[in-house]
Amino acid sequence: MEIIKKDIDNGKAFDWGKASSDYAKYRDIYPEEFCKRLAELSIGVKGQDVLDLGTGTGVLPRNMYKYGAKWIGTDISENQIAYAKELSKEQGMDISYFVSSAEDIDYPAGSFDVVTACQCFMYFDKSIIIPKIHYMLKPGGHFCILFMAWLPGESEIARTSEEMILKYNPSWTGGHMERYQLSKPSWCGNLFEPANMITYDLPVTFTREGWHGRMKACRGIGASSLSIEEIAAWEKEHMEYMQTVPEKFDILHYITILDLRKLELETIITYGDC
């Protein structure tokens, strides 16, 4: 399904479903340290019901599965959900998946202990989804926004790969990532308060094939509206570049975890009376 956001890729359409095959193979890259950090924050652990919005191929539920939570994953793309179901079945994981945009999800009040959004929150309509998440969370529940991005300013390989993507798709706005500090978002209003705001660097190891696949599975190439011929030309040039780098290498990534706690009605009323 094509998505158009005026503030993303300069309004150029993208469709994650087109990248599903490469996404499933090359974007399951979260190191164990990332998952362990979430578990230490009591995100996705035993006894919890967790809803993962924009789940893609189920990367987060599958990686966190061993920590014992009961997961439901949703995504707007039928292709992404098809791969999520297949991969989870192959790995013997009991995870439920449904095709739905985040804005259209409809669960009863207090259905979940945790709601997560990994690499996808920028695509949602906050005016719709924030009140809905608050409604679906149990008292004291958490909404956790996760993001992991490579730092091109500290990796010649990442920087060169970005330049090649922009050569073929100058509308892509997914590059040039830098570190940034987390703060309480204005859209929290009196519905959420920060419980944890964590940032840290994390090196991720790639092979030439793995990094090439990771780049192809990004919004600027595989999910873009580029033609088959344009993607093939990018692949040829990028693979030629990959032959000039070591077979294995680390790309430094920047991790952000914005863990928000649901404020209850009683708390909201109290705050309003102050």
Overall geometric form: globular
Structural class by sheet pairing and helices: alpha/beta
Question: Helicity range of the residues?
Answer: 25-40%
- Rounded to the nearest angstrom, the distance between the terminal CA atoms is 47 Å
Beta strand %: 15-25%
Low-confidence stretches: 267-274
Order of helices and strands: HHEHEHEEHEHEHHEH
* Quantity of strands, as a count: 7
- Individual helix count: 9
User: How is the largest sheet built, in terms of strand order?
Assistant: 3-2-1-4-5-7-6
Mean pLDDT: 95
Q: Strand count, sense and closure of the main sheet? A: 7 strands, mixed
Radius of gyration over all CA atoms, rounded = 19 Å
Would you kindly provide a written description of the structure presented here, covering whatever features stand out?
The protein has 274 residues and is α/β, with parallel strands linked by helices. Helices cover 34% and strands 24% of the residues. It has helices spanning 20-26, 32-40, 59-64, 78-90, 126-136, 156-168, 208-216, 228-242, 265-273, and strands at 49-53, 70-75, 96-99, 112-118, 137-150, 192-207, 248-262. It has a seven-stranded mixed sheet with strand order 3-2-1-4-5-7-6. Helix 4 (78-90) links the parallel strand 2 and strand 3 (96-99). Helix 6 (156-168) runs antiparallel to helix 8 (228-242). The N and C termini lie far apart (47 Å).
